[in-house]
Amino acid sequence: xxxxxxxxxxxxxxxxxxxxxxxxxxxxxxxxxxxxxxxxxxxxxxxxxxxxxxxxxxxxxxxxxxxxxxxxxxxxxxxxxxxxxxxxxxxxxxxxxxxxxxxxxxxxxxxxxxxxxxxxxxxxxxxxxxxxxxxxxxxxxxxxxxxxxxxxxxxxxxxxxxxxxxxxxxxxxxxxxxxxxxxxxxxxxxxxxxxxxxxxxxxxxxxxxxxxxxxxxxxxxxxxxxxxxxxxxxxxxxxxxxxxxxxxxxxxxxxxxxxxxxxxxxxxxxxxxxxxxxxxxxxxxxxxxxxxxxxxxxxxxxxxxxxxxxxxxxxxxxxxxxxxxxxxxxxxxxxxxxxxxxxxxxxxxxxxxxxxxxxxxxxxxxxxxxxxxxxxxxxxxxxxxxxxxxxxxxxxxxxxxxxxxxxxxxxxxxxxxxxxxxxxxxxxxxxxxxxxxxxxxxxxxxxxxxxxxxxxxxxxxxxxxxxxxxxxxxxxxxxxxxxxxxxxxxxxxxxxxxxxxxxxxxxxxxxxxxxxxxxxxxxxxxxxxxxxxxxxxxxxxxxxxxxxxxxxxxxxxxxxxxxxxxxxxxxxxxxxxxxxxxxxxxxxxxxxxxxxxxxxxxxxxxxxxxxxxxxxxxxxxxxxxxxxxxxxxxxxxxxxxxxxxxxxxxxxxxxxxxxxxxxxxxxxxxxxxxxxxxxxxxxxxxxxxxxxxxxxxxx
Length: 699
Ligand SMILES: Nc1nc2c(c(=O)[nH]1)N[C@H]1C(S)=C(S)[C@@H](COP(=O)(O)OP(=O)(O)OC[C@H]3O[C@@H](n4cnc5c(=O)[nH]c(N)nc54)[C@H](O)[C@@H]3O)O[C@H]1N2
Ligand SMILES: Nc1nc2c(c(=O)[nH]1)N[C@H]1C(S)=C(S)[C@@H](COP(=O)(O)OP(=O)(O)OC[C@H]3O[C@@H](n4cnc5c(=O)[nH]c(N)nc54)[C@H](O)[C@@H]3O)O[C@H]1N2
Ligand code: SF4
Ligand SMILES: [Mo]
Known about the structure:
single chain, 699 residues, alpha/beta, N-terminal domain of TfIIb, Rossmann fold, 4 domains, six-stranded mixed beta sheet, 30 strands, 18% strand, globular, binds ligand MGD, binds iron/sulfur cluster, binds molybdenum atom, 4Fe-4S, metal-binding, Prok_molybdopt-oxidoreductase, Mopterin_OxRdtase_4Fe-4S_dom
């Protein structure tokens, strides 16, 4: 008798926007998990390398980790197991009753950048057609929305990276602003290392000397929230050094005069006093970037998660444009998007003001196109809704603007939203909270109904990575019997809500519909299908036709603005919404650690990761620790105008003495978002996660 070993499935990681390729190989019968992760050397983005989160991802499939049955809240307040028929009837009846009494906008939907393109697309359609509500937004608003807004203003198009990661080693000078890929995208670090091996210069801008900053030729360590002044100061020095590319500015841009005027008001000594970065370092950075023949600026959440994030990114784009480092090979501005489908998730309509293909919901032509694909009257489509924080803040409020029911798919705002204690209280005020998730997250624990959905290796779908590369993430295991896919859940609810449009639950069929809905839009997927994605290592959008090769590099001939020119942003520096004062004398900034992902809903359930990063901490400088008389590991209270969090002190000279840092992956007493300030950027509505004023006390 011969036994054949079932082949490993080539698929992608459940977590971040690199979407590293991996193999899932079946394990022996009786193992705790059905598959194990193996290296997949042939995927070009990570070439086999995985971080610890990816290596241990199979643990998410374990029966004790993932939910296996629907849950409903009993009269006594407990969650108990229920059948699908019971929960779907209850949810549909509840949503319909609230809609009938308070209007469709009283029913809200909150999506996520981890959802596949098919789910994100279907969720936007579900909200606008099955529910008829304008009230939909998603956690990407908390992520890269400021960079997206700035990119659209400057270039007429938002794709995080306008070039593949593989171009990075070929640029001469790269400025990495508020990004810590050594912890947030470890396999991508190789590209920055190769840049230096090729003789290029790496400059890192971060208030902390991170593992990424340690690899830089130059580390600028600004006060949190002062990147805008820093970028203006560098432009000032480019002008002074005469390294502005006048021909490029004249031929390919508009609006330089106002950018120049703002930069002239930011002379080096003034910028040093605002940012804390010494003039000598400003000069060195400007010299490297200005004199290099090619250059890139990449931002991540540091400069973006600010109440002036859009203007801040605009100032960094201005620097690229003035130096002629955009729209040319091995040069340009890019944003390192974060979530697994952070790129595709922002293109297909789960955003409050958006229809598929990166279309505007206010544009009559866009409404007509998408309504035709959906088979509905364009006039029935709602208009723009409210942004993520505004949506969460309106939950359970009495009065006409209050949202009474919420469907959450792909987010855990109890941990990840700013001013989280307030948002948790708002969630508790809802008449109906429904959470679709694979695990019992902190938000699911508050729900009236929990719908267990298939995840990652249990289903197939497309993801668009941070480069704009559309890939197929293949199913590798059968889902547990009590679980349904998000697509199936939307279809089942739409049927019970008597939706006038059809909903399918086969991802390939939904993708075919998404293709048609996106056709002619900016994020055009019309030339893609599963067959092609099975054969290729991803295709870069726009890809408008089946014989189109895809677009790895954007803007080489023209920018996507009506006149083809990039637009300088008229920006000037302003302080963070909250500045330190006597009562709250320090800056708090927040971010990530290597072994935990986001709200931790997934990674805190993986033993290896919890062993590596067991809990929250407060990073502070030895001088501050000495003044407070705290020792390493001692509990420390951090207090802001929103609340108080307690976590052990971690003393390090890698942080500025005027700043403390907390990771945001944990709930409970050490929840960083108890402290954060929901001051919103006026354009992107991004909350100011990266800066608020706090005081620190011994407990
Ligand atoms: N391990 C891990 N990896 C992840 C994630 C995760 O949760 N864990 N999440 C994924 C997602 S969704 C995202 S969005 C990305 C985020 O990826 P990153 O943006 O790299 O991560 P952060 O730690 O949020 O912030 C980056 C850096 O910004 C710095 N910073 C803080 N304030 C400022 C400021 O005012 N100015 C500047 N210039 N820098 C500042 C912080 O010190 C931090 O080192 O990571 C993705 N990858
Ligand atoms: N203080 C502070 N707060 C922050 C940040 C910060 O830097 N500082 N960063 C912000 C950023 S950049 C982000 S992206 C947010 C992220 O924060 P969240 O939006 O909370 O993201 P996750 O923790 O990834 O939560 C995703 C949830 O959806 C589930 N899930 C994953 N995939 C699927 C799926 O396909 N279907 C369904 N139904 N569920 C799924 C997961 O199990 C998990 O419970 O946090 C933001 N909050
Ligand atoms: S870097 Fe991101 S995609 Fe790659 S293995 Fe780690 S979490 Fe997964
Ligand atoms: Mo993010």
